[in-house]
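input
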Amino acid sequence: MATHKRVWLITGTSSGLGHEIARAALAHGDIVVATARDPGKLADLAAAGAITEQLDVTAPDTTLSATITRIVQRTGTIDILVNNAGYILAGAVEEASRDEAQDQFATNVFGQLNVSRAVLPHMRRQRSGVIANLGSMTGWQGGPAVGLYCASKACAGILSEALRAEVAHLGITVTAVEPGAFRTDFLAQGHKVRAATHISELDQGTSGTHDVLAAYNQRQPGDPVKAARLIVEGLTGTGRCEGREPPARWVIGSDAHQFVTAALDQQRKVMDEWKDLTTATDCDI
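output
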């Protein structure tokens, strides 16, 4: 892969980090297939040289397989898949309706699985490829008012670890890219979805998070352009990442590093405090 133009397939490129990854991969000299549910929103990427395709990650398997086959017929291969499509559902766990919870997981979890299932047969045949599933630092610790989102992003990390072990011998690398907060439209109206039900009794536990999300919009500490460049270098093993393979769970962002480190330290503390009882359940013989 180091001596030819890589072919990228990126979902959810109409805005945000997916859009910036597409631009960074193009600047890297690679071939980019940029996808979105509405390809009409990809005009600037098309003008920059990207191949644009309509792709809904929640579409039936037959539809996704046909789309991936058509892409491979045009490009000859898919070297790097970035499962980026996703959104945040804001609301307490109890406030989220059945449909809202299912929609969150349909996009953030099953969407990644759907596209991966369609692409993996091609990668297995060529005995090479990289799959990057977009997770989040919040996949390491659940937070009030964003529990469904955190849970969906925890799935990205765990599923990536499992898939990585299953396909490594086939020359396929899998990583969960787990960013912190980057200055995109992710928290803006039209991107963030608020649960329709409001339970006032839960306000004491949830209002702080809602206030933080509102205050953070367009004030996030991370630069998405810098993140996209790093992700492209990491997934191609070039630049600052030459000779390094991305880990199974790749935390990106200074806030993410701090957040995940604190979550791990807290979990270690709890494990140590409960060790005497946790380890007291083995069979006597």
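quick obs: The chain has ten helices and nine strands.
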